[in-house]
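Page 47, continued from p. 46.
Same chain as before, 74 aa.
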Amino acid sequence: MISSSTEATDRGKKMRIYRREGVRHLWLLCPSPRTLEVYRLEGGRYSLLGTFEGDDVVRAEPFDAIALAVLWRG
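Result:
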């Protein structure tokens, strides 16, 4: 999960490490404002597949469907 204090590291250094190591799918969860960003590694770069919010049920690679409400439970 991304927090305001780690967002720069999560979007910078960590994404570069994951890309280098070949992590195919990357999710960035932001508890406030309850958003999920889904990325896929393609040709050595991450492509944003979608940004989802709230309590929707979404298709978020590599899973078939997930209810976002489950992610926000503490």
